[in-house]
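Example 3.2
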Amino acid sequence: MTLKQLPKPRHLVLVVDDDPSMSLAIKRVLNAAGFRTETFASAEDLLRSGAAAHAACLVIDVRLSGSSGFELVTQLAERRSCVPFIFLSAHQEPDHRQQAANLGAIAYLPKPFEARNLIEAVNRALSSFEYEHI
């Protein structure tokens, strides 16, 4: 492959999930779909890294050790972050889907989810991100 044939780097998607096997599975799905990914085990790890400033989308587990996914999004909003986000959850609490919508989530995917549903949600998030940054 020559330099002219190299694909353009895709947008950076950050994954925040405290289950290492789930983080790895999500990373593999998104990488196979052509996205660049970084994973974080906690909201605190993501906030310390500063990586959200360079992200085009966040994929966040609702229940994390430490701050929850909902608390993470609130903290990012307080820092004026406008990165679109998707929530994932293995626990189907009745109010979680509504809370995710109230916070502005692009999608709320119950675990387990199909890879194509995650990829479609990320593509929707990236479309909204690109529209906001024209």
